[in-house]
Amino acid sequence: MAEATASNLGIAAERVLVASTGVIGKRLPMKCILTATPSLVKELRRNGGKKAAEAIMTTDRWPKLSALRWESAGDSVTIGGIAKGSGMIRPQMATMLCFLATDAYARPGVLQKILRETVENSFNRITVDGDMSTNDCVFLLATGEKGAAPEIAERNSFGRQFKEALLEVCLDLAKMIVRDGEGATKFLEVNVRGTPSDAEAKMVGMAIANSPLVKTAFFASDPNWGRILAAIGRAPIAQLDVSKVAIHLNEVRVVRNGALDADYAEAKGLAVMRLPEIRIGVDLGAGYASARVWTSDLSHDYVRINAEYRS
User: Fold this and answer.
1) Is 143 a catalytic residue?
2) Per-residue model confidence as pLDDT tens digits over 177-196
3) Is the pLDDT of residue 95 over 90?
4) Residue 142: enclosing H or E segment and its boundaries?
């Protein structure tokens, strides 16, 4: 694939990046791909982002695009990206692909560290079903169209602006993947704080976000707080004092000091659970670190889509 694409573009094969998705273990239809490559190269357009986003869709219900433009040193700078993903989503690895590009300039190697940090705080904080496929990828390309100034560097002011903009675009795309989760009816944000480290906060957040019992409760609009507390308890963290745990659903405090809050009323919890977007707040009372992850509920349609995937 790389050689055929490079040949038609008139560039070296090592400059072509390859990504794929599909049924695990099934070989790609290389004859079709190689036959189509010349015409695909001829169809390349500067305004072809939407078509490219549509082309990489599988069970996605809509194309995922995001872009940001800002002024720096009197010139406009742009970051744009497309992504695909809907099921088998828990990056590191997952069935998600993301392609990002910027017209800013960066020396070789500079973008790698920036991208790793950005991915950790965006795509690696999402989960739809906790399942992992055989591949995922996020590519960031710098075209250098704007010339060598301003230059992306880790410690200069433009580099900091670039990192913030890149994170905004990646978060936008990552959240689109969750909102488009297979069979999803609700978008859930899990905020965890009060842990000794950010890493432990993320572990707790992911334990909640990946729990089938938690996710099905949200699908049913059932404020079953015990399932959330149980997920916290099985997170692989060093220690947990249940008597310090607090849980909120949006602004409604459900759990205080590890037990049902005395002021909680089921009607309040039900009102929140019926909303399409819900924040789950967790405070472990054991430190000052925090983390945020995003997930969706788990519905009947998720089972149907994946049961019928090959048929």
Assistant:
1) no
2) 999 998 999 999 999 999 99
3) no
4) strand 137-142
Which one-letter DSSP state was computed for residue 262? Answer: T
List, for residues 263-303, the tens digit of each pLDDT value.
999 999 999 999 999 999 999 999 999 999 999 999 999 98
Q: Answer yes or no: are the C-beta atoms of 37 and 5 closer than 8 Å.
A: yes
* Separation CA 192–CA 96 (nearest Å): 25
Extract the tokens encoding 61.
């219900």
Task: For residue 273, give Cα distances in angstroms to 144, 150, 221, 229, 247.
Answer: 47, 47, 5, 16, 14
The answer to whether residues 298 and 216 touch, using CB atoms and an 8 Å cutoff, is yes
**Co-location of 107 and 223 in the same domain:** no
Rg, the chain, Cα only? 22
**Same domain? 36 vs 129:** no
Mean pLDDT within 17-46:
91
Q: Show the domain range for 62.
A: 46-179
From first CA to last CA, the distance across the chain in angstroms is 27
Average pLDDT estimate for 90-96: 77
Residue with the two structure tokens 């602004």: 251
Question: What's the total number of domains in the chain?
Answer: 3
- From the candidates 5, 37, 95, 118, which is the catalytic residue? 95
Same domain, yes or no: 127 and 248? no
**Structure confidence at residue 109 as a pLDDT band (50, 70, 90):** confident
